[in-house]
Amino acid sequence: MDKIDQVCSKVFPLGYKISIHGDLVSGRANTSKEEVALIGTLNQAAIGVDLAFELAGKVLDVVKHHPRMPIIILVDTQGQKLSRRDELLGNAGYLSHLSKCFEVARDRSHRIISIIYNEAVSGGYLALGMIADQSFALSDAQIRVMALPAMSRITQIPLERLEELCKSSSIFGPGVENYVALGALEKIDDAHLASLIEVAISNQSNSDDRAKLGHERGGRNKAYTVIESIIQT
């Protein structure tokens, strides 16, 4: 059994059916509450213009034919595709289009939940994972916005200094625990993931509590207080 079937079996014990086309996975799954739509990626997909456009089409198809059906995003991506063709075609615009389609779904009362079951990196993670109302991850998932050696090359900060900063700041650090501390992920509980997803589907709140969670968990100390000060001004 491959990784996508492992996670679907764990999260949807009442049954699921998926179709795989290249690096794209889509389908339906049963929960005790209602049927949900599955949309996502596999094989540590690099998201280029073609895959981003296919994913966006799947989202709009759910919006058009299945009003208010919750959407579960199954995330396994190495990030945006780094090729001359995709860059020349405006890959960032395609990723933005994908995010906007999820926002259209949210505006039409589709609850959006993401599950990072293998890898989530950079722009692919932003468009597929963090766009959700609530995000979950398996404890062995690999998450990062940028590898530290690449961050070192871009910022000109020595790698050793970045590694030292990672010990005291979740903002610099890769990994599930750091993203939980930042408030970007719900707390990890592989054994009860199915019931957590069902609770998330039933959650009707539209508030974005990630900054508050990051503040409470000590991973992001300024964002919440700055947001609150602006709101109260």
Mind explaining what this structure looks like?
The chain is of the alpha/beta class. The protein is 44% helix and 21% strand. Strands 1, 2, 3, 4, 5, 6, 7 and 8 form an eight-stranded mixed β-sheet that branches. The longest helix is centred in the first third of the chain and has 17 residues, at 49-65. The chain is globular and about 50 Å long. The chain starts with a helix and ends with a helix.
What does the overall shape look like?
globular
Count the DSSP helices. Answer: 11
Helix content: 40-55%
Instruction: Tell me the number of strands.
Output: 8
Strand percentage lies at: 15-25%
Q: Report low-confidence residues grouped into runs of 5 or more.
A: none
Give the helices and strands as they follow along the chain. HEEEEHEHHEHEEHHHHHH
The overall pLDDT, averaged over residues, is: 92
Task: Determine Rg (CA atoms, Å).
Answer: 18 Å
Largest beta-sheet details:
8 strands, mixed
Instruction: Quickly give the structural class.
Output: alpha/beta
Termini gap: 55 Å
Topology:
Blueprint: H1 3-11, E1 16-21, E2 24-30, E3 35-41, E4 45-47, H2 49-65, E5 71-80, H3 84-88, H4 91-107, E6 112-121, H5 122-128, E7 134-137, E8 142-144, H6 148-155, H7 159-166, H8 176-181, H9 193-202, H10 210-216, H11 223-231
Helix pairs in contact: 2-4, 4-5, 10-11
